[in-house]
Amino acid sequence: MAISQLPALKFGANAIATIFVAFGINAIVRPANALTFFEPFSVPSDPNDAKTIAGLLAVYGARDIFMGLAIYAAAFLGTTRSLGWTVVAASAVAGFDGFVCYAHGGGQWSHWGYAPIVGVLGGLLTGLLDGGNSGKSQ
C-alpha cells in the first residue's frame, strides 16, 4: 500500500479540518478569546475599535471554517492527492498567520508549532513518498 493511502493520514486530515472549523466557530462566537491566539494583539478598549476587531475576527473565523470544509470536501469527494494539496495550503495559511504575529512582536509559535505538522501530513497525502505512485488515480 502506498504511504499516501494509509487510513491514518486521511483520519489526520479530518482531525485537522475539525480543528479549523472549531477555531472558526470560536472566532465568530468569542472574538476576544480568538484574539488571544495572536499574542501581540489585544482587544482595544475603545468600543468602536473593539467592534472592528470583532468584525475582522468573524472574517477570520469564516476563513478557518472554509479551510476545514475544503479539507472535508477533498477527503470525502476528491483524490488523495487533492486532499494533500488542500492540507498543504492550510499549512501555509497557518505559517503566514505566524509570520504576522512575528512581524508584530511575538506569538508566532502558536502557529509555527503546528504548521509543519500539517504540512508534512499534506505532503504525505500528495504522494511525496510513494516512490513514483503519486496517488493520481486514487
From TrEMBL:
Keyword line: Membrane, Transmembrane, Transmembrane helix
Annotated organism of origin: Cercophora scortea
Pfam families cross-referenced by the UniProt entry: DUF4267
Regions that span the bilayer: 12-32, 52-76, 83-105, 111-129
Protein name: Uncharacterized protein
Domain of life of the native organism: Eukaryota
Classification via InterPro entries: DUF4267
